[in-house]
Design brief:
Distance between the termini of chain A: 41 Å
Number of helices of chain B: 0
Strand content of chain A: 35-45%
Number of strands of chain B: 11
Oligomer: heterodimer
Order of helices and strands of chain B: EEEEEEEEEEE
Number of strands of chain A: 11
Helix content of chain B: under 10%
Largest sheet of chain B: 7 strands, mixed
Radius of gyration of chain B: 13 Å
Shape of chain B: globular
Number of helices of chain A: 0
């Protein structure tokens, strides 16, 4: 069975501080992982995928197969980063994603 | 190009009533999905479809039915609503050659 865990339901940081949103997964095969974001009053949208190895809006995420983690990081948080973040895993069935519980990030001024 | 749309945006039902949520997309998505979003539980897949005329169960299918008679529409039905089905429902679509799911704006359903 595949599972995604986001241990922090709420995370609060100050503007300019580093932020790390944790994501752990369990999956026996070779996973593909994603971060989706939902800003207030907006639709859920893809932020980044591990395959692309990209930095979006200053965020990066590295897949660590040894620790089965895919933490999302940003060195200097901005107020506009405040949102709900979901980690998602594409596993056995290539047609569907398994989402984590979500982390509500608040960046204070 | 409206993308993925959902109808209605809000609805209040009494226990035992039925209703249908409509998801429509004009992005030629092969795959379509229905999720529910509950606090502390994230997004959970209810049902999904890998193409016109097909449907499959997700993680939490009980109490729901779906149909995909046309490629652009994916309907979610509640035959006999229960308070446990109070939630925000999201539809999403995905093209065959991409991993990205495109979400609708959501439907907030309250069952009294």
């Amino acid at each position: 069975a595949q599972r995604v865990t986001q241990p922090e339901k709420l995370l609060s940081v100050f503007k300019g501080a580093p932020v790390e949103l944790k994501c752990n997964y369990s999956y026996s095969g070779s996973p593909e992982l994603f971060w989706y974001v939902q800003y207030s009053r907006q639709r859920l949208q893809l932020l980044l995928r591990h395959i692309s190895r990209e930095s979006i809006k200053g965020f990066t995420a590295d897949l660590n197969k040894g620790e089965t983690s895919f933490h999302l990081k940003k060195p200097f948080a901005q107020e506009e980063d405040s949102a709900m973040y979901y980690c998602a895993l594409k596993g056995t069935s290539g047609s569907r994603l398994t989402f984590g519980e979500g982390t509500q990030l608040t960046v204070n001024p | 190009n409206a993308g993925v749309t959902q109808t209605p945006k809000f609805r209040v039902l009494k226990t035992g009533q039925s209703m249908t949520l409509l998801c429509a997309q004009d992005m030629n998505h092969e795959y379509m999905y229905w999720y529910r979003q509950d606090p502390g539980m994230g997004l959970r897949l209810i049902h999904y479809s890998v193409g016109e005329g097909t449907t499959a169960k997700g993680e939490v299918p009980d109490g729901y039915n779906v149909s995909r008679l046309k490629k652009q529409n994916f309907l979610l039905g509640l035959e006999s609503a229960a308070p446990s089905q109070t939630s925000v429902y999201f539809c999403a679509g995905r093209g065959g050659g991409t991993d990205t799911q495109y979400f609708g704006p959501g439907t907030r359903l309250t069952v009294l």
